[in-house]
Amino acid sequence: MSINWLRFVSPSLKKPPLFHLCHLPPPPSSSSAVIVAMSYDKELAAAKKAASLAARLCQKVQKALLQSDVQSKNDKSPVTVADYGSQALVSFVLQQEFPDNFSLVAEEDSKDLRKDGGQEIVERITKLVNDSLTIDGSYNVTLSTEDVLKAIDNGRSEGGSQGRHWVLDPIDGTKGFLRGDQYAIALALLDGGKVVLGVLACPNLPLTSLSDAGQHSPNNKVGCLFFAVVGGGTYMQPLDGSSAVKVQVSAVENPEEASFFESYEAAHSMHDLSSLIAQKLGVKAPPVRIDSQAKYGALSRGDGAIYLRLPHKGYREKIWDHAAGCIVVSEAGGVVTDAAGQPLDFSKGKCLDLDTGIIVTNQKLMPLLFNAVRKSIQEKASSL
Ligand SMILES: Nc1ncnc2c1ncn2[C@@H]1O[C@H](COP(=O)(O)O)[C@@H](OP(=O)(O)O)[C@H]1O
Ligand SMILES: [Mg+2]
Ligand SMILES: [Mg+2]
Ligand SMILES: [Mg+2]
Fold it and tell me: Which residues of this UniProt protein bind Mg(2+) (predicted)?
């Protein structure tokens, strides 16, 4: 392997970039990998169930949002209802399944809901949660408004490197949700600071590739559930529950043939920097801009080959925005690092400590991408 990349590594970089590891022999296969994957079976089943129920709740709210005037009046409360409802639902389901030592790091809390005037919205959330819990007969319960507020606040854990912690983004891509575009319910499990399981429910993501010409046809079904357990690969199934297929990242080696994903929102990622990187790589296709961790899901099944997320200076990434996506892509054969080539460290609490941003691609393209990223960052800095 060429070691040209060393010229572009920042002086502070002490460890070699992660993609170096790609050239180590593969880990001992099948039998030990299966044992690792098997030990999270109960957790996986519960996570899939919780995320699917939450997806149904969100779909219901998004449908009402799109069919009413609310959106044009710019009233964001239905989104708040869906965010809180999804969090309460997932929190409740996981706590039922794992009553001992339950720890959840989640995006929302009930502070605003407990303020004066919050009662009506809490009642709406409670109705949504109760309707969703009883929808397929698996939970015969009726939660009170206080139960729902408590379930939301059970997501107040700080995470860390010890023990097990669930990590939840009840709606990732709130802006996409409001527009009627992509969003995801993202749930992961940390064990000893490492992501060992991830589930991504993407209610608006087409079941066929985003690069297919027919993806906007009315016959094209939407609603994907991606899931991965460490050592066990990544699978995708329709959210309606039919059977799962194993997925793999794109095998593209020539960057000219690669297409790349980035945030729809320019405020979330520097589009000028990603176009410089794409230019250096010789990428021909225009960027595919979509919201949320649906980008990780789409990448895991090879819809595109690269995801660039380069936030503006000062922004600190949260673990719930990447934990599920990261394992979904890496178990599908991809590599997720920061812009210095280091793996993402989910063991430090709610935030990730990153060099510049996050880059994702397959193992073959990573060295080229990494070079282009370092050169582009230096060029941008020297032009300021
Ligand atoms: N200035 C910023 N830079 C980077 N990410 C940001 C940001 N402001 C918000 N975000 C995060 O970007 C997430 C959406 O990512 P994407 O751009 O890929 O759709 C948001 O998740 P939520 O929608 O859960 O709040 C939020 O956490
Ligand atoms: Mg998010
Ligand atoms: Mg969110
Ligand atoms: Mg948010």
Answer: 107, 169, 171-172, 321
Residue 75 is assigned to a ligand binding site: no
Task: Give me the mean pLDDT over the 55-69 stretch.
Answer: 85
Sheet with 306-309: strands ordered across: 288-289, 260-262, 306-309, 358-362, 334-338
Whether the complex's predicted ipTM is more than 0.90 is answered with yes
Which residue's CA is minimally distant from atom 14 of ligand 1? 173
For residues 182 and 223, give the distance between their C-alpha atoms in angstroms, rounded to a whole number: 10
Question: Which H helix or E strand runs over 57?
Answer: helix 41-67
Q: Is position 174 annotated as part of the catalytic site?
A: yes
Of residues 78 and 81, more confidence is placed in: 81
**Residue 153 known to be catalytic:** no
Tell me the residue ranges of DSSP E strands in 64-218: 104-106, 164-172, 184-191, 194-206
| 309-368 residue pLDDT tens | 999 999 999 999 999 999 999 999 999 999 999 999 999 999 999 989 999 999 999 999
Distances (CA, A) of 90 to 51, 83, 263, 365: 7, 11, 26, 36
Give me the torsion for CA of 3, 363, 345, 204, rounded to 10°: 150
Residue of minimum CA distance from atom 9 in ligand 1:
268
pLDDT at site 30: 42
Strands 234-238 and 245-247: antiparallel
Which domains, and CATH codes, for the chain?
4-25+249-383 (3.40.190.80), 36-247 (3.30.540.10)
Per the listing, tokens 């990780």 go with 296
